[in-house]
Every structure is written in structure tokens, then in C-alpha cells.
Amino acid sequence: MEHQNFETKAIRTQASKSEFREHSSPIYMTSSFTFEDAEQARALFADEIQGNIYTRFSNPNNNEFIEKLCLLEETEDGIATASGMAAMFSSMAGLLSAGDHVLASRSVFGSTHQLFTKVFPKWGISHTYADIHNQDEWEEKIQPNTKMIFAETPSNPGLDIIDLEWLGKLSKKHGLILNIDNCFATPYLQQPAKWGADIVTHSATKFIDGQGRAIGGAILGRKDLIKEIRFFARHSGPALSPFNGWVLSKSLETLHVRMDRHCDNALKLAEYLEGHDELELVKYPFLKSHPKHLLAKKQMKHGGGLVTFVVKGGIERGRDFLNSLEMLSLTANLGDSRTTVTHPASTTHSKLTDEERLEVGILPGLVRVSVGLENVEDIIRDVENALIKTSIKEDVSV
Ligand SMILES: *Cc1c(COP(=O)(O)O)cnc(C)c1O
């Protein structure tokens, strides 16, 4: 086939059929593969021919998942990993050496922050955080030993947007590797490689799986870089289970339909919440009130599945609001078919001081909603009822 559109690639990319001519890919739960003869085994190990040897290296289910993701992200090559963190870790550990430095955006996923601050320093890999809102700061913070720029957009949980085209140009200018965690957007909404990302990393656990059931990840990007990371991964072992590879490849078939609905529901919830008198702030990339609304429209197809808002009444009210929800799930996960709600100040970011939280944009009353696929009227009603039940204005009136 000459040209296929996104949806078609997500559905029609399949592992080659077995002798049973199955219509859908089977699960290849096998740890190893047999060689036709000693010569073929030799050639496979010498990298003279391509083929599966052992599932820690490659497997038909994981290959299908990765081939599809490469087509969707428009990258040359990729590796499937057991989790999003295995992808973040391997994409950096495979390319960086002692003495190297990473320039990263200040608001990164919690475990990625732990890698930068607690794990990589053990091996002499340092980092500096730069502020999303201050572009000049980024160039000033590049050091002679800087090798990689790492960022997430939209950011978690602030939903700030970083200009990918600008970041792509900055990395080129200084000869750096640009690594973008594209978990929040998925390739359906945004393809960082088009703007100059050399590596695109994913937690497939979120919107790619989309039903809160499988853990997985992926590293995609330039062939030469993936080759280096593949060597690291092959021998350090963050391999994805073929069962999860099968689940995730199947999930990609419906990514576009699910993301359209996630984004549609999220926009409707954000529009409903905007200007609500129980809230101080509502943030959603495709609301006109978002400071980077035009940039979001430039680099994203829709605004994404997450909405954040700040309830009046601080940390107490935030907690009470969560306790008053009847349907929405209280969980730290996101990208699920079920709407999930998190109060970062009392959970994921509770160990930070108030100042540290403010630095990454986490106000005491900030609530993060990952909008699911339920009927949006039911989602809005649950939020509305919880806001009424915990209204701080009631205290005044009685
Ligand atoms: C969840 C998440 C990760 C980590 O992924 P796991 O699959 O949980 O290991 C990394 N980055 C972002 C932005 C995430 O949301």
C-alpha cells in the first residue's frame, strides 16, 4: 500500500499470518524461537539476518506493536518496554554516560523526577530543570556536557504546553538529543518527531491501553539512537510481555475513536467548569483562556483527555470534594475509559513543601481529572453534585 492514513495504519498493520491464516493476530507466548539450522542461528546472532531469537530481544506481538507505533509517530525504529518508566529509564541510560548532563522541563512525571534526582546522580549523570514559562532560561542552562533535552507536553498536572518546534530547533542548534514523553497526547494528537524530536517515549499504560489494564511502554525514534538503546535493553532486560504487547497493539486499533471521545468529553467538562463560582481556575489546552491556547492548537489535533481545576477553599476543600464524588474513581492512574480524579497536593505530590508544589504549579485546591468515555452528562453531574455538597458558600449562609 502506497499511502495510508493514521486510522488505517493503526488497524491494518499486522504481524504476518501463521499457517492458520487468522484474521487477527494470535498471542505468541513463547520465550524462544527455533533456528532452521546451525547456519541460520549463526547468521541471526551475527545480525546478518533479521528474525526472532528470544523474547527478551524481540517477539512477533511486540514487533507488531512497535511497527504500528513507528508508523503512527512517524519514527524510524522503536523498542517495546515493560512499562513507561522502563522506556524513560532505558532511553536515557542507553544513551548517556558518566559526566553527561540532561536539561529537563521542571514539571516531569514523579518517577522521572526520582530518576533525575536520586538514580542518575549515582552514575554521574546530572540534570538541570528549566521553567516551561521562560524560554530564555533553556538556552542559558545548556552546559558544555549537556547531551539531551527531556520534556513532557502537555505537562502533568499543570497542563502547560511547551513549543515543540522551538525545542526541536534549540536541540538542533546545540547538537542535543531531544527526548519527548508523549504519553499525555499520544501520536493521534501530536507527533513530536515532526517537530524535531529524536526520541519519543511513551507510557502505553495510559491512553494507549486506554482501559486501565495493561502496563507497558515504548521508545521510538532515530535509527542510530534506537540501535544504541536496543543494545542496552537487550542486555539489561526491560522487555514487554508478549501478552501485553498483544493487548497494546489491539488497543491502538481504537486509539483514534477513543481519543476523539476523551477529548470531546474533556472539552465539554472544561467548558462547563469555566467560570463556575466554586472554582478559582480551570485549565484545558483548547480553552481560549489557556495561556498557550494557540500553541496547543498548532501542535495538537485536540486538547487531550485531562482537565485540571482549582477548587476554592484550598487543600481541605480539595479533599472534601474528592470524598463527595459518587461515580468518578479516586486513583492515581489516567487515560482510562473510566473518569479518574486525583488531588496531587494530598497524594502524588504530598511529600513536597508548599513552595516546591507552587514551583511546579500545584495549588492546594488543584484537582486533576482524566476524563473517561462515560456519557459526559453523567460525568458533569457527579462533579457538580460534589461541588454543591462541599460548597464553602454554604458555611457563610448558615
Ligand atoms: C504514567 C506515566 C509515566 C510512567 O509510566 P508507567 O507505565 O506507569 O511506568 C511516564 N510519564 C508520564 C507522563 C506518565 O503519565
Structural class: alpha/beta
CATH architecture of the largest domain: 3-Layer(aba) Sandwich
Ends distance:
70 Å
- Report low-confidence residues grouped into runs of 5 or more: none
Q: What is the number of beta strands?
A: 12
Strand line-up in the sheet with most strands: 1-7-6-5-4-2-3
Strand content: 5-15%
Question: What this model shows, in words?
Answer:
- The protein is an alpha/beta fold.
- The chain folds into two domains: 7-252, Type I PLP-dependent aspartate aminotransferase-like (Major domain) (Aspartate Aminotransferase, domain 2, 3-Layer(aba) Sandwich), CATH 3.40.640; 256-389, Aspartate Aminotransferase, domain 1, CATH 3.90.1150.
- The protein is built from 16 helices and twelve strands.
- It has helices spanning 6-12, 38-45, 60-73, 84-93, 110-119, 135-140, 164-174, 186-189, 223-236, 242-252, 255-273, 293-299, 314-323, 354-359, 376-389, 393-397; strands spanning 77-81, 101-105, 126-130, 146-152, 177-181, 199-203, 217-221, 279-283, 306-311, 329-330, 340-342, 366-370.
- Helix 3 packs parallel to helix 10 (242-252) and helix 4 packs across helix 9 (223-236).
- It is globular, with a radius of gyration of 22 Å.
- The structure holds pyridoxal-5'-phosphate (PLP).
